[in-house]
Amino acid sequence: MPDLLQITLFTLLVAVLSTALILPPGVALGWLLARRNWRGKVLVETFVALPLVIPPVATGLVLLKLFGKHGPLGVLCQGVFGVEIVFTWKAVVIATAAMSLPLLVRAARVAFEEVPERLEQVARTLGAGPWRTFFTVSLPLARRGLAAGTVLAFARALGEFGATVMIAGMIPGETVTLALGIYHEVQLGNDSAALGLLGVSVALAFGALALSERLLRRKAEVSLVAGGRSDSAERLRRPATAEQTKAEANAPVMAGVKPAPPSENAAPSVALGGSRETGVANRRPEDAPVPAGTEACPMVLTLCGVCWSAGEFALELTADFGGRVTGLFGVSGSGKSTLVELVAGLRRPKAGRILLGDEVLDDGEAGVHLAPERRRIGFVPQDGALFPHLTVEGNLRFAERRAPLEGRPQRRELICALLGIGGLLNRGSGGLSGGERQRVALARALVSAPRLLLLDEPLAALDAARKEAILPHLRRVRDELGIPILFVSHAREEVLALCDQLAVLEGGRLLQHAPVAEVFRRPASDAVARIVGVETVLPGRLLGGEGALAAVEVAGVRLHGLADQLPAGSDQVLVSIRAEDVMLVRCGEATHTSARNRWRATVTALVDEGVLMRVELDCGFPLVARLTRQAAAEFELVPGCEVVALVKAPSVHLIAR
């Protein structure tokens, strides 16, 4: 009977050493394969996987040629270190490492692929460099998958035979592992000894595999509990209960701050960001120090010929964004999120320049691309991208490392009060509602002391009740912090509630950039009118005009509208009328209005839109009006009834075509 204890201990030692040897390169290579694309990547993947599909003795033969006396690595080890590799215990470690590495690399790749890349991107925008992002975000979130892969590689090392026997031979007391011992005893006809070694080998392998499976199952459970893509996404989609909505709407009260709507005529005073105070109870005393990093600094974001493309989509923009809140508005696929990621540094433009104030962030010709962590630009994606392995307070502390050291506690306290998240600090992200997640994500971006804040459809995943609950918080951020905001949305009510400037995009092109009211009331083109939701856009013919007023014919009906922006020499126009600007009166009812446009109309359809009713009319041309449900009931409107439609001339916008 061989020395069972000695062989077992030697096998365990070899497995531990070989696993430790491959762990750093295996994890690094797994991350590269999961996160990077380069020419020849497929060749690297194939080469790494080869030991899994070719005979182990073939791998051993390659190692023998590499580490033999005349092999390149063998000569190097002998000449530089004076160490021989083949037919020593070192060869056993190298052989088991070579056979275990593919399993670890594949497990690491899968583990890193399951970590949402958006979390790493957000970490970069919060000031974390590549190494800090890897060790504080990527590695902790992938740790259970990596642990399972490491245990699996260890189990493979316990049973390695073919490559080992080629490069290390079978030297008793020197290179014999459990696998080699079983083979040796069978060759000698000593079945009882072979079965003893087999039992130990199976027990060790079974224990390692069971541990690996347990880690994988635990990983799946943690993903569900930690607010991964399943639980949190479902919570965002699920309508809010009355209790949840009330709690979110009253969050500032719970934090000791009473909310108030923004006032356009509020008197200027110093606030957290040095902007305007709106009379809320969160007023900072005049003599209180402003936390470092919160001073108002008007920033103009400039894009000069910025170009970026992928597949058939191409974005080309030149613009200056200098408002308090500039909305990026457009349908899905118009380039809104791409533009935000370019500004954040998450994508690199192929040409053009991006400047924030006087600082160049990107310059295609000069080869300048400032890393995201160096831009001091806050970024809040649609799902919030909270780090699931950290508490709410941990998320905030991760971000505030970029802020000036002086005033960090005061800044964090004021922002928590402003957004009403003081009672959430010890909770994990998985236990937060949709509105709470967005407020925490917003607070995390703000505590990093950004010069510019990018909000990429932060309300898109919320139902109507939660959206109404979080809008007051966004208005307070706008009015009290003095940080310019770029707000991405495709919802009209959101930009009307928050933005002072609006940039309309379609197909990667900027169609119009102007104050919000001007864009909605005076769209620059039929495309803008369609995107911002103008209900009535019809072709017409210009008949003439006096001053800014013009007469237009639409389907044989005469209209009066504004023509001050029409180019000379063209009589073909588009007539744009918003439903909110259409007034309805009963036929024969006396009216006291200055409306120049009066048309007898027939109701063709009524569409219930919740608190409002969409009224579709035939005035000789199709027209849409919008009334409250109560007004529609008082009018006793039904399809086929007749009314008079009134529209003031300034509400009839004419667009050249």
Task: State the CATH class of the largest domain.
Answer: Mainly Alpha
Looking across the biggest beta sheet, what order are the strands in? 7-8-9-3-10-11
Write out the CATH superfamily name of the largest domain: MetI-like
Indicate the percent of residues in helices.
40-55%
Tally of individual domains: 3
CATH topology of the largest domain: MetI-like fold
3D architecture notes:
- This protein has 657 residues and is of the alpha+beta class.
- It is built from 22 helices and 21 strands.
- The protein has 3 domains: 4-225, Orthogonal Bundle (MetI-like fold), CATH 1.10.3720.10; 301-517, Rossmann fold (3-Layer(aba) Sandwich); 534-656, RNA polymerase II/Efflux pump adaptor protein, barrel-sandwich hybrid domain (OB fold (Dihydrolipoamide Acetyltransferase, E2P), Beta Barrel), CATH 2.40.50.100.
- The strands form 4 sheets. It has a 6-stranded mixed β-sheet with strand order 7-8-9-3-10-11, sandwiched between helices.
- α1 (4-35) packs parallel to α5 (89-113), α1 packs antiparallel against α7 and α2 crosses α5.
- The longest helix is centred in the N-terminal third of the chain and has 35 residues, at 191-225.
- The termini are far apart.
